[in-house]
């Protein structure tokens, strides 16, 4: 594709953004600008209000569900090495599967034509609303 490659910035503490100018403001005082802003800054988002301005009432906050979601992509050939009962989950069937326990869920589905599988694990998190200690 023509143009500059995407730049992914990690470990950058975001304090806010300006969607009109596509500018993100960082806690170190610097700002970065790009074509697209992806706000993946979690439940305590610093930019949610700015991003949804005009679409929802000001100050709209995320509603905690009491669950945390952990996501991972795994190569199918690595999953084939695991001892998983066929009646629980079949890697041969390219379909999304949900395994449900009392208060936990694992959602598994194929990607890239079956070369990869995505897993989402939903687990209770009673401390979700507590402030982080780190």
Automatic annotation (TrEMBL):
Q: Does the keyword Oxidoreductase apply?
A: yes
The record's listing under InterPro entries reads: FAD-dep_Monooxygenase_BioMet, FAD/NAD-bd_sf
Q: Which UniProt keywords apply?
A: Monooxygenase, Oxidoreductase
From which domain of life does this come? Eukaryota
The yes or no answer to whether the keyword Oxidoreductase is present is yes
From the UniProt record, which GO molecular function terms apply? monooxygenase activity
Family note = Belongs to the paxM FAD-dependent monooxygenase family.
- This chain belongs to the protein called FAD-binding domain-containing protein
- Which taxonomic lineage is given here? Eukaryota, Fungi, Dikarya, Ascomycota, Pezizomycotina
